[in-house]
Design a protein that fits this description.
Elements (H helix, E strand, L loop, with lengths): L9 E10 L9 E2 L3 E6 L5 E6 L1 H10 L18 E10 L2 E8 L10 H4 L2 H11 L9 H11 L1 H6 L1 E2 L9 E2 L3 E8 L2 E9 L22 E9 L2 E9 H6 L4 H21 L1 E4 L2 E5 L4 E4 L8 H17 L8 E9 L6 H19 L1
Parallel strand pairs: 5-16
Antiparallel strand pairs: 1-12, 1-14, 1-15, 2-3, 3-4, 4-9, 5-6, 7-8, 9-12, 10-11, 13-14
Helix pairs in contact: 7-8
Length: 350
């Protein structure tokens, strides 16, 4: 299906966006930085609307059953790791569920890699012994068998061995705005009972009472563009079977189509919509199939990979781990911990 992409190092795509209503939008914000405004060498004022890491999360989310932790029904048969967490809360047992599809660190999640049986199986499959060179083709094969999404979106196995196993994203994306200008405004959170904030509920003395004025910064822009980069050279280097490579390409493009079709309401005040269809920057001769065609291709390749034994059997790896909520440190414990840290620092300097 993707014969035109053989030998092509990158599939580069973009789509122009606009606010679904009005002109203003709220970009992503960073701690101690705020909005990421910068200038191009030609002096054009630019703005990062959505980062690569945030777009990765959004591309993963479109294939979940609701908010997860399980995969959408149309992608049944695609492998992932599902974990039942037997948690202890104040002496009471409760069961939580997570998966490699929703965990921030994917297969490197402590809820997954802390399972000794899984960690041993994963290490054996990759041939990773903590020393010597890493066989990246074996790593890719095992990642694909347990969770193709972890291979597609990248994973850093920092919690395994000496932490050298790092796989970059095959599909990456970001949104930026050109000729960006601030649109500052503000408001007030009103307290109709007592604007002064002196009237407070017994036992709840946080500073959330009274009238609270606030400011907000939004932006307008001459152009807003979402960019997508499918690293075909990286994918080819993994040496996976052709049907596995076809699955990852189809799945990546399906995610892009789903994201654009499902709506880009990134935040309350950032609701974007495409101005045109997805455009190809390279190779210019390629056309991205429609969402329904890509969905059928993904289903077909899931069946092929399953027949070929490229997936774990069963496809969903079920794990179980025990966990408990860590007690909050008292003020005295915090002071003692700080003193211990200082002592360690002094010893290190010696």
């Amino acid at each position: 299906m993707f014969e035109e992409l053989k030998g092509v190092p990158r599939l580069l795509m973009h789509v122009e966006l606009k606010p679904i209503q009005g002109d203003r939008f709220q970009p992503t914000g960073f701690a101690d930085l705020g909005a990421a405004v910068y200038e191009r060498p030609d002096g054009k004022r630019m703005l990062l609307v959505e980062s690569a890491q945030s777009m990765a999360n959004r591309l993963e989310h479109v294939c979940l059953d609701g908010d997860g932790p399980d995969i959408a029904s149309e992608l049944n048969g695609l492998p992932y790791v599902r974990v039942k967490i037997n948690a202890s809360v104040d002496g009471k047992k409760t069961e939580l569920v997570t998966s490699s599809l929703v965990e921030a660190h994917r297969l490197n999640s402590p809820f997954i890699i802390a399972n000794k049986k899984f960690a041993e199986s994963f290490s054996t499959g990759t041939g990773y012994a903590g020393t010597g060179q890493i066989n990246w083709k074996r790593v890719a094969k095992i990642l694909f068998s347990y969770d193709p999404n972890s291979l597609l979106h990248g994973v850093f196995m920092a919690n395994l061995g000496d932490g050298r196993m790092r796989v970059p994203r095959v599909i990456s994306a970001f949104i930026e705005a050109e000729d960006a200008r601030e649109a500052n405004s503000g408001g007030v959170k009103n307290n109709p009972l007592d604007p002064t904030g002196r009237l407070r509920v017994e036992g709840f003395d946080k500073d959330v009472y009274g009238n609270v004025p606030y400011h907000r910064s939004e932006f307008t822009a001459g152009r807003v563009v979402a960019y997508f980069n499918l690293d075909l050279a990286l994918l080819a280097g993994y040496g996976l079977p052709d049907h596995a490579r076809q699955l990852l390409i189809a799945l990546a493009l399906y995610k892009v189509r789903r994201l654009l079709a499902a709506g880009l309401r990134l935040r309350t005040a950032c609701d974007l919509t495409p101005l045109s269809d997805l455009r190809i920057d390279a190779p210019a001769s390629f056309n991205v199939p429609d969402e329904s065609v890509l969905r059928d291709a993904v289903k077909r390749e899931i069946r092929e990979c399953s027949k070929a034994g490229d997936f774990c059997d069963p496809a969903i790896t079920e794990l179980s781990v025990d966990a408990s909520f860590k007690a909050k440190k008292s003020a005295q414990n915090k002071e003692e911990a700080a003193n211990d840290d200082q002592s360690d620092e002094d010893s290190a300097e010696d």
